[in-house]
Amino acid sequence: MNRKKKVKSTLLAKQKKANAKKQKSNKPKYISKAEREKQALAENTVDELKA
Question: What phi and psi values does residue 12 have, to the nearest 5 degrees?
Fold first, then answer.
C-alpha cells in the first residue's frame, strides 16, 4: 500500500506543477531600470515634439 501511495503522490505532484506552469500570471512583466529610463526618455522627447 505504501508504494502505491508514494507513486500516486509523486505523479499528482508532477501534474500539479505542470498545471501551475500553464496558468497565466496577472503579474506585469519585469522591466529593468535601464529600460524604464529609456522609455521615459522616449516619452519625454515625444511630448516635447508635440508641444
Answer: -65, -40
